[in-house]
Amino acid sequence: MTNNADNRILALYGGTFDPIHQAHINTVKAMASEAGLEQVILLPNNVPPHRPQPKADAKQRLMMAQLAVSGDPLFLVDDRELRRDALSYTVETLRQYRAEIGSRRPLAFIIGQDSLLTIDTWHEWDKILTLCHILVCKRPGYSLDFPSEQLADWFVQHLVTTPESLHKRPCGYIFLADTPLFPISATNIRERLKNGEDCSDQLAPAVQDYILAQGLYR
Ligand code: ATP
């Protein structure tokens, strides 16, 4: 998949994807075009038994991610976090990827703006930029009002405004892209499906068909 002479950004996008929806796909596509990403790897998260469980199981969440991006050469789906029994910390997954691609190739982790505001709750969050860049997609309802001065300072210190910078270093930058706003959340989709409402404008057709066939979120 990769080698040390390859300087293209390898971008990862993690999520519970319960279910994967059109805001996930379309914000990442917009990010890819703005930041010049050729490859984005979707990483469905493992949710360990002691945490509130997703409604869809790991196999179903993986299948929905595969169906959502099937035939689109921008995307690959990696099930490595689902194959682990234990909680998969993002920092550990990033360390694995860094070991696989070597120290020089740019690695990026894509998140929504809501995740940026709580990133200091992630395990070893202050190590993340030593491994990758963080690419942030806008999300309606979330501002840049950081909950602490420490996090606001960290953001400003690492922020770059030109995507070209991301290609020049392997890690260390935060890029806030001007992605379109999609007022969609998996929680809201689950509620609407439970009420028998139509969500065809928020889900890929193949994902919607799979949800119906599996009787999910009823
Ligand atoms: P839930 O509603 O259950 O919290 P979610 O829709 O936020 O789910 P996740 O799988 O938890 O979906 O999110 C994966 C990533 O997608 C996160 O980084 C999140 O910030 C981002 N994301 C989700 N929805 C949007 C959206 N509407 N716009 C931009 N980013 C989003």
Automatic annotation (TrEMBL):
GO MF assignments: ATP binding; nicotinate-nucleotide adenylyltransferase activity
Keyword Transferase: yes
Domain Cytidyltransferase-like: 12-192
Coiled-coil segments: none
CDD domains: NMNAT
Keyword Lyase among record annotations: no
UniProt cross-references to Pfam families, sorted A to Z: CTP_transf_like (PF01467)
Record-linked SUPFAM superfamilies: Nucleotidylyl transferase
InterPro entries from the UniProt entry: Cyt_trans-like, NadD/NMNAT, Rossmann-like_a/b/a_fold
Associated pathway: Cofactor biosynthesis; NAD(+) biosynthesis; deamido-NAD(+) from nicotinate D-ribonucleotide: step 1/1
Enzyme class: transferase
Domain of life: Bacteria
Gene Ontology biological process terms, A to Z: NAD+ biosynthetic process
EC number(s) reported in the record: 2.7.7.18
Reaction(s) catalysed by this chain's protein: nicotinate beta-D-ribonucleotide + ATP + H(+) = deamido-NAD(+) + diphosphate
Keyword annotations of the record: ATP-binding, NAD, Nucleotide-binding, Nucleotidyltransferase, Pyridine nucleotide biosynthesis, Transferase
Similarity field: Belongs to the NadD family.
Role played: Catalyzes the reversible adenylation of nicotinate mononucleotide (NaMN) to nicotinic acid adenine dinucleotide (NaAD).
PANTHER family (alphabetical): NICOTINATE-NUCLEOTIDE ADENYLYLTRANSFERASE-RELATED (PTHR39321), PHOSPHOPANTETHEINE ADENYLYLTRANSFERASE (PTHR39321:SF3)
HAMAP family per UniProt: NaMN_adenylyltr
Entry protein name: Probable nicotinate-nucleotide adenylyltransferase
Species of origin: Morganella morganii subsp. morganii KT
Taxonomic lineage of the native organism: Bacteria, Pseudomonadati, Pseudomonadota, Gammaproteobacteria, Enterobacterales
